[in-house]
Fold this sequence. Notes:
The protein has 500 residues and is an all-alpha fold. The protein has 2 domains: 10-209, Up-down Bundle (Growth Hormone, Chain: A), CATH 1.20.1250.20; 253-500, MFS general substrate transporter like domains (Growth Hormone, Chain: A). The chain is built from 17 helices and 4 strands. The protein has a two-stranded antiparallel sheet with strand order 1-2.
Amino acid sequence: MNSEKTFFGHPRGLATLFFTEFWERFSYYGMRALLVLFMVASIETGGLGLDDKSATAIYGLYTMFVYLLALPGGWLADRFFGLQKAVWYGGIIIACGHFAMAIPTTEFFFIGLILIVIGTGLLKPNISSIVGGLYKDDEPARRDAGFSVFYMGINLGAFIAPLITGYLGESVNWHYGFAAAGFGMLLGVIQYRASSKYLGDIGLKPEGFDPANEKQIAFRKKVKLGIFAFLIGLVILVLLTTLGYINVDVVSVANIASYVVAATLVLFFVAIFLFAGLNKDEKKKIGAIAILLVFSAIFWSGFEQAGSSLNLFASRYTDRMIGDWLMPASALQSANPMFIIILSPVFGWLWIQLAKRNLNPSIPLKFAFGLIFLGIGFAVMIGAAFLVVSSDTVLPTWLLITYLLHTTGELFLSPVGLSAVTKLAPKRLVGQMMGAWFMSVAFGNLIAGLVAGEFDEKAIEANPSLLPDIFQFITIFIVGAGILALIFTPLIRKLTGNVH
């Protein structure tokens, strides 16, 4: 390393990445907390005036593409930019996206969303790769501890952001909230550039690039030209759509996208089984991953209701008066990262203690518990919904309990799922299997947006019992998936062999 300075006993470069990720997550979750609320707000109050189905479908498509573009973002970094430049470019594009959303026109709002998706696709996968590069291969425990510090930055940014952007957006002006998210990312970019020297040469150049190879140089020029042309075409398409020259039914687009992503995942695994040269043991483990990804998609389809249907519930049906102050609905989006910060050390300690006693639950069992806790969280919302039907509004306590249960489910499933993919996949296929994991998360995010569209305000006003009915359906579906995961646990354990 270029310096002997440390950050809580870790390489100084970790501080550079910690604060970059802190501000990137601040910008992302700050904007996300406002996104659906802004889209459904009336034009008279500065919103877009969209119906619930359209707004949540856009939310689902947006969050889906955030995960999907991590795949080409990683490839571009490896082949063209290098990890460090990918993070730099990504941060700049994200900041431009937020500032575009701060301009009060529909055209700039959607252009801003596209820029944030592209920038996040470049930054998110590559900054994590740089964190791993700070450590030597023979210090896995120190690397794990470094990632724990890094993920604390994620959750601190996600916790603080909705409190600031939510107040500005809901209480002052929607576009001030988006601008605050942009300034957060701008601070992250400035900090990253100013302290990037501490990263040394980690990810400074793309792997395998030879500046003297004319064929590589020519290929790079073609790809860059193709990317530029694609972006210009995308911007033109957005402008034509928002100006009314092209009519797009966004709900239909989201439905079609869900079929495309699901079909792509199925075809991917079929191709892996047929053409990847797997032996018998590898086929079993890939089969286990495929089953786990189904449960992963179901989990995220429920968990990601936080930014859509549960956010709308907070806005419309929750009593947010604290004395004479009306708490912004988006402030409740800070609950999940707050619970993550509190509970992560508890779960880390719990797994170690259970492992010492040979009681550590298996991978599929943790998936089952994750789904069941998520489902119980929605069961709490059934009670809240019945109270809404009879008394108009409920206390925020209902949502806080739900978010606590959902966070518990997340800690059972999310880190375990990522670890399971790296453990079960053959080394030559780890990258592709991680791509499949993120596709399952993307699919779940998209379905979450489509399901949230069922919480249509006008339909619920006409038939109030629809609100508890929807929560009841989600509860039965997700708890049912958890019970199914319990039933499948012996089979999945057999497929995974001795992997825990």
